[in-house]
Specification:
The chain is mostly helical. The chain has one domain. The protein contains seven helices and no strands. 25% of the residues are buried. The model has no long low-confidence stretch (mean pLDDT 83).
C-alpha cells in the first residue's frame, strides 16, 4: 500500500497543492464559524457561541500554519509539524461536521439546528472537503521520503554437519 500512496503523492507539486487547498478549506471553515458567531448571533448562545469562536481561532491558526514555510522555519521537525497540523486540521473539520450533523437531529449543548439553510450547506460542504483533503495531506506527508522496506534475505544455515567437522 505504501508504494501506491507514494505513486499517488510522489510529486512535490501534488503535495504542496493538497496542503494549500487543505489550508484554504480550513480557513474557510473558520471564517464560516466566525460568520455564524457574529452575523447570525451565535455569540449569545451559551457554550455554542464560545465553541464557534474557538473553532474560528483554532481553524485560523492551523490553516496559517499549513501555509507557513515549515521547511525553512523548523527544518528537522518540519515533517512532523506538518503531520500534526494536518491531523489537527482534520480533527477540527471532522468534529465540526459531526457536531453539526448531530445538532440537526438532537440537542447539542441545549441547541438544535432547525433546517438546511445556505450557511449550513456551506458548512457541511467545507468541513467535509477540508477533512478529506487534510487526511490526504497527512497521508502524503507520512508516505513521503519514507524508506521502502525490502524483505530480508534468509540467513544461511550454518548448522549443517559439514560446517561442524574439524
Amino acid at each position: 500500500m505504501s508504494r501506491n500512496v507514494s505513486a499517488l503523492f510522489g510529486s512535490p507539486r501534488t503535495r504542496i497543492t493538497l496542503r494549500v487547498l487543505g489550508a484554504i478549506l480550513l480557513l474557510f471553515v473558520g471564517a464560516d464559524h466566525y460568520y455564524e458567531y457574529s452575523v447570525d448571533d451565535y455569540s449569545v448562545l451559551p457554550t455554542i457561541g464560545t465553541l464557534f469562536l474557538l473553532n474560528f481561532i483554532s481553524a485560523t491558526a492551523i490553516g496559517l500554519l499549513l501555509l507557513a514555510p515549515l521547511d525553512r522555519i523548523l527544518q528537522r521537525f518540519a515533517r512532523i509539524a506538518l503531520q500534526l497540523a494536518a491531523l489537527s486540521g482534520f480533527g477540527i473539520a471532522a468534529t465540526s461536521l459531526v457536531a453539526l450533523l448531530v445538532s440537526e437531529h438532537t440537542k447539542l449543548f441545549g441547541f438544535m439546528e432547525s433546517n438546511y439553510r445556505p450557511a449550513i450547506i456551506v458548512a457541511i460542504t467545507s468541513e467535509a472537503s477540508a477533512a478529506v483533503i487534510l487526511l490526504l495531506v497527512f497521508t502524503a506527508s507520512w508516505s513521503a521520503n519514507r524508506p521502502v522496506r525490502r524483505p530480508r534475505a534468509p540467513l544461511a544455515d550454518h548448522s549443517s554437519p559439514s560446517a561442524s567437522t574439524s
